[in-house]
Amino acid sequence: MRVFILDYKKIKRNFLLGALLLTTLILFFVIMQQKAVNVDTEPKPHAIYKVATKKPVLALTFDISWGTKVPGPVLDILKEKNVKSTFFLSGPWVKQHPEIPKRIAAEGHEIASHGNEHVNYSEHDQEWIKKDILAAQESIKEVTGVTPNLIRTPNGDWNDIVLKVITGMNYKVIQWSDDSLDWKKDCSVEQIIDRVLQKAHPGAIILMHASDTCDRTPDALPAVIDGLRKQGYNLVTVSELLDYGPGVTD
Fold this sequence. Notes:
Layout: H1 8-41, E1 47-48, E2 50-51, E3 57-64, H2 71-81, E4 86-89, H3 91-96, H4 99-106, E5 110-113, H5 126-144, E6 150-151, H6 160-168, E7 172-174, E8 178-179, H7 189-199, E9 205-209, H8 217-230, E10 234-236, H9 238-242, E11 247-248
Parallel strand pairs: 1-7, 3-4, 3-9, 3-10, 4-5, 6-7, 8-9
Antiparallel strand pairs: 2-11
């Protein structure tokens, strides 16, 4: 007959070691799960094409990189129609024609950047991209007194590296969900109007131009504004539009 003698000290020690091991494992899994949640929920840099909202609101936006003939008539129409828009301005153009960007700012429109050199950012390294954005920012601020925090990359070009650089500079990349095609020479005034009105939707960001190469924009703009309002839309700046919901890619 065997007699078993219990060593209570040893049992107690093993129990404590087991409890410590179990607690360590639980803490490990909790920490790993928390890290996984943080990675999944951390917002990634993204370009904004529209705003997620059901409200009947959208933004008219204009790019300007060259010329002095079209901007004036566009501004006259916006003033007459009492519309505030967002203008994406190229750095060299701002320096060459300071009276126009000054008027844009004075009349209450939103000033944004269109970069300095009108080339694809994705074809350059991070340092070049930073220098180009800062050069445009300096020109815009010097002339208008405004430091922009929105940018539309030249040609609408971007990749993940471009987004990372721009976001790191506290800018938002603003693209568009509705291209008026006013930049296409074979697109008539009527086609520009019809395209904008047909593609309009809540939260839309509409791309138009006020450069001299887009000489049909002033002819199309009054009907565009009247048509959008007839559909029940309120026209605001991009920053105002972002107050209605998050900016999304699609």
